Amino acid sequence: CGLLLTLALLSPGAAAARKCVLQGLWRNELGSNMTLSALDASGTFSGSYHTAVAATTKQILVSPLQGAQQHPRAKGQPTFGFTVQWLFADSTTVFVGQCFVDPHGKEMLETTWLLREEVRSHSDAWRATRVGSSIFTRIK
């Protein structure tokens, strides 16, 4: 009986049923760290982002973020979005993504981001937006 229970708990379906939680400390593949607060009743959250990469000569500062999770009491692998207000650059980044739990119970945030930097004129707008993706894994 114990062996059957153990096998059932370790099966991929058991991990997939585990709910993914945004709150905590996360790191992406480039070494950037992000801390997310608990969701409030409406599904919004705040936090901080410390990037490991930036196109600036200024000192990189921990920057605030604000976000929302879609339907906070719904499914176990929720979608979310957040905005980072960079304190050291004339730019803003928005992230959208989904929180996943892999078959081994490991949580990850798969995201796509847009970074918009300030440019001097409309004729320079063509170079003002960058797009990319990041996968964050839980540190704590």
Automatic annotation (TrEMBL):
It is found in: Secreted. This is Avidin. The keyword Hydrolase does not apply. GO terms for cellular component: extracellular region. GO terms for molecular function: biotin binding. Keywords: Biotin, Disulfide bond, Glycoprotein, Secreted, Signal. PROSITE patterns: AVIDIN_2. Belongs to the avidin/streptavidin family. Disulfide bonds join C20-C99. It comes from the Eukaryota. It comes from Heliornis fulica. Residues 1-16 form the signal peptide. Homotetramer. Its main location: secreted. Forms a strong non-covalent specific complex with biotin. SUPFAM superfamilies: Avidin/streptavidin.
